[in-house]
């Protein structure tokens, strides 16, 4: 068997399409780990959220044009910034975050305005301590991370000018009023469906399953199984489906915890997600059957099965997304037809029956009769304040934590930037500190991507903003353009960061012209572009100099975790006694193995972006090991449905497979290979384990095979000798 090539693109006419698919987005990671996930995810356009955000501060701006009272602009800015903090989710969590932001933002602005005249010795340490706290807030949640980032923006704006006690009081009150107005609008007046984000996440899981199914249909028609194509499929689709499943699971459980009970709709979402996860597991096994050089008949049967299955997955995904009912009676014929004619291939037939059963459940849950009565939340429960707030702070308060390193790095780099901008004060110098802190991320690869997207989006958006400002000759025209740009910007917030910045920059240009009259639009664009480029360079350089995270070390840790997870999955599949406990253990270990492989590939992707790390020998070995572990995981899922793999005579090999994976994960010597026939069902799995050992321990596998000698192989000529990684 040739060693897998994790990053090579398949040759032939499909190369261009494959390369285009290799660049993924944040929600759909691509197949090529060397490429930054800067693609656009157009399915995440949120037009209604954009209209709501524009209305939140547009009303206040129009009120200011009528009344002409300057504090209203502070209120409008607070309403705008509060919308940036709202990432959706359970109502209670959003209420906590938005209320805290509104109050803390007002106090922050007022307090820094009061101490601003005290000079650098007081202002810089206080501001750096606050930046550390805002950056460290990411340990709590994504919502807290967003609020912390926006509070950094408030901090930078607050240091622009000193305030008297009366001005500070008015600023604090108006900022809190603006934030609370946006909160009231989002959670009370213009309240989007509380279950919709969770159900959209579940719909995305089913849609990703349809994409995975479609890609398997493409692979099954290849004249010969293509190693690189299957590796790309595993990284581009299996990684994306697993990530979407975990995202949906988190959203559903957060929703349930916020209400402290499982409502009908929450139970419906959980059952849909459970069915989708079981379909995902079975489709992995189908992909392994296609990848294992099957005969023409199996390929033909698999092609027909996949072609019938994909439309059903798309139909259910759309029903969940649009929250509509399905006519189960009309759909039943298509569901039953999916598994017809597969009796010639018992393994494929068993997998198809399992998939069809879960598809039927998913379809039934989209009917009025498909709901389940609610109940109290017994698993997980609501978290007490100590666990929710203090626990994450303590767990991450170590230099081994990327979050603590990030907070230290942000505050350390912000100190000289603050000193420079306060010494050489200007109308736009605060953009330097904003860019440095907001561009900086815990990992170098994420910082590099954020810098590229922010710089490119700022330059392009600045040009658009300057042109629009040239034609907006009155405050009313500027306000109208601001409303339109707000709708576009907030609606595009989840498409990609670069696209969001491109849409946001024209809004910033027009807002500055409205709030700070007297500046040319081209001057604003030039200053913002210059400070963005300088801040991006500083942020990228700081990640390489200050408390850097050497990614090969992270790869080593994640690889060890992935090996241990695979050992647990092998133990559950190959050694556990039959029964309900075995199925439960397999499901749990399969999820753990999938998460571990996703984390390994995330570490590999970061390592390939870090200077000098991409060519590190451990990274190169881990790339091959990752592809091999994907195949081992898939083969184990196939064996879960293959009774012949439980034959008593294969027990020594089952024990050897489990022990070898555990030894690799624990950094122990690899056990000796049994001098027995492997059996037809374990040939491919043993070969993959041999390849894994040959990649990670080439000396041991050579010594082991030399000591044991030739092990009897199967009649079809497959060899037991692994192919070491060159």
Automatic annotation (TrEMBL):
Comp. bias regions, Pro residues: 1-13
Region (Disordered): 1-31, 707-726
Gene Ontology CC: one annotated term: plasma membrane
Record domain Integral membrane bound transporter: where: 427-541
Chain intervals with Low complexity compositional bias: 707-719
UniProt KW keywords: Cell membrane, Membrane, Transmembrane, Transmembrane helix
Record bears the keyword Membrane: yes
Regions that span the bilayer: 53-83, 95-112, 118-139, 146-163, 169-190, 407-425, 479-512, 524-550
Iron in keyword set: no
Compartment annotation: Cell membrane
Domain Integral membrane protein YccS N-terminal: 149-272
Bilayer topology term: Multi-pass membrane protein
Predominant location: membrane
Family: Belongs to the YccS/YhfK family.
Protein name: Uncharacterized membrane protein YccC
Taxonomic classification: Bacteria, Pseudomonadati, Pseudomonadota, Alphaproteobacteria, Hyphomicrobiales
């Amino acid at each position: 068997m040739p060693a897998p090539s994790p990053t090579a693109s398949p040759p032939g006419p499909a190369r261009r399409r494959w390369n285009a698919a290799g660049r993924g987005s944040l929600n759909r990671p691509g197949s090529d780990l060397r490429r930054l996930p800067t693609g656009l995810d157009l399915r995440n356009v949120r037009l209604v959220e954009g209209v709501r955000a524009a209305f939140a501060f547009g009303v206040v701006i129009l009120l200011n044009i009528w009344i002409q009272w300057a504090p209203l602009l502070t209120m409008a800015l607070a309403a705008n910034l509060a919308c940036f903090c709202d990432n959706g989710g359970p109502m209670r969590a959003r209420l906590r975050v938005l209320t805290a932001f509104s109050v803390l933002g007002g106090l922050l602005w007022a307090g820094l305005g009061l101490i601003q005249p005290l000079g650098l010795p007081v202002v810089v340490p206080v501001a750096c301590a606050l930046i550390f706290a805002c950056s460290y807030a990411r340990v709590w949640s994504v919502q807290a991370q967003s609020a912390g980032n926006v509070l950094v923006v408030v901090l930078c704006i607050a240091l622009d000018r000193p305030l008297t006690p009366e001005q500070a009081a008015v600023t604090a009150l108006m900022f809190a009023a603006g934030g609370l107005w946006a909160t009231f609008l989002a959670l009370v007046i213009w309240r989007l469906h509380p279950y919709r984000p969770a159900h959209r996440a579940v719909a995305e899981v089913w849609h990703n399953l349809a994409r995975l199914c479609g890609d398997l249909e493409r692979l099954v028609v290849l004249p010969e199984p293509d190693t690189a194509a299957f590796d790309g499929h595993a990284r581009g689709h299996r990684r994306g489906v697993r990530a979407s499943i975990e995202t949906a699971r988190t959203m559903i459980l957060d929703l349930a915890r916020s209400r402290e009970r499982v409502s009908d709709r929450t139970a419906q979402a959980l059952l849909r997600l459970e069915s989708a996860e079981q379909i995902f597991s079975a489709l992995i096994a189908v992909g392994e059957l296609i990848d294992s050089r099957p005969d023409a008949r199996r390929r033909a049967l698999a092609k027909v099965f996949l072609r019938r299955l994909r439309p059903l997955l798309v139909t259910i995904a759309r029903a969940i997304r649009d929250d509509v009912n399905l006519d189960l009676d009309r759909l039943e014929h298509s569901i039953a037809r999916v598994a017809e004619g597969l009796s010639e291939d018992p393994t494929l037939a068993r997998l198809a029956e399992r998939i069809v059963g879960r598809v039927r459940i998913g379809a039934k849950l989209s009917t009025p009769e498909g709901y389940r009565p609610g109940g109290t939340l017994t698993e997980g429960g609501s978290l007490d304040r100590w666990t929710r707030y203090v626990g994450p702070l303590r767990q991450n308060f170590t230099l081994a934590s990327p979050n603590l390193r990030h907070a230290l790095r942000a505050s350390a780099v912000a100190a000289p930037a603050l000193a420079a901008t306060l010494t050489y004060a200007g109308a736009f110098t605060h953009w330097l500190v904003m860019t440095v802190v907001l561009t900086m991320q815990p990992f170098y690869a994420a910082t590099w991507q954020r810098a590229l997207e922010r710089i490119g989006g700022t330059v392009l958006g600045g040009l658009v903003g300057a042109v629009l400002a040239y034609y907006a000759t009155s405050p009313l025209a500027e306000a109208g353009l601001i409303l339109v740009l707000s709708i576009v910007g907030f609606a595009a917030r989840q498409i990609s960061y670069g696209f969001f910045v491109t849409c946001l920059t024209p809004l910033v240009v027009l807002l500055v012209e409205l709030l700070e009259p007297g500046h040319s639009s081209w001057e604003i664009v030039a200053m913002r572009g210059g400070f963005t480029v300088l801040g991006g360079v500083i942020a990228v350089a700081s990640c390489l100099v200050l408390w850097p995270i050497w990614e090969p070390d992270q790869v080593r840790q994640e690889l060890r975790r992935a090996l241990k997870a695979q050992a647990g999955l092998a133990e559950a599949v190959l050694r556990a006694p039959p029964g309900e406990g075995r199925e439960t253990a397999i499901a749990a270990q399969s999820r753990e193995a999938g998460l571990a492989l996703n984390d390994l590939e995330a570490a590999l992707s970061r390592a390939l972006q870090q200077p000098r790390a991409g060519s590190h020998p451990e990274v190169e070995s881990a790339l091959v090991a990752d592809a091999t572990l994907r195949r081992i995981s898939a083969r184990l899922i196939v064996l879960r449905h293959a009774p012949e793999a439980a034959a008593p005579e294969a027990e020594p090999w089952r024990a050897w497979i489990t022990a070898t994976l555990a030894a690799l994960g624990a950094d122990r010597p690899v056990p000796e290979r049994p001098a027995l026939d492997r059996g037809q069902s374990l040939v491919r799995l043993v070969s993959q384990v041999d390849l894994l050992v040959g990649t990670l321990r080439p000396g041991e596998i050579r010594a082991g095979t030399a000591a044991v000698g030739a092990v009897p192989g199967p009649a079809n000529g497959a060899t037991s000798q692994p192919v070491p990684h060159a």
